[in-house]
Amino acid sequence: MQNTTNFSIPLAAGQTITLGTCGVPGGSGFGDTILRLFNASNAEAASNDDAPGCGLLSNLTFTAATAGTFSYVPVALRAKAAMGPWPIS
User: Fold this and answer.
1) pTM for this structure?
2) CA geometry: angle at 86 spanning 33 and 41, to 5°?
3) What are the strands of the beta sheet with 68-77, ordered from one edge?
4) Which of 6, 41, 48, 89 is paired with 21 by a 20 to 30 Å CA distance?
């Protein structure tokens, strides 16, 4: 997989976010994508590879059990492809 930059997202307890290269407004992609979300301890809190109905593209919804700052890798590619801006909601 290709290395990417993580971005921080502060979340309140009970707050839900959706990340996606598929299934979110403005979401698009190509190649085989994977999305990963990490907690403040840098442990993986959620990930998605090949979401249902999205082929090789990814979509994940996460609800924070406790408040904290999470980080996400915008898109990691399993195959060579161009990077792009990927929306969250």
Assistant:
1) 0.74
2) 75
3) 7-11, 68-77, 33-38, 44-49
4) 41
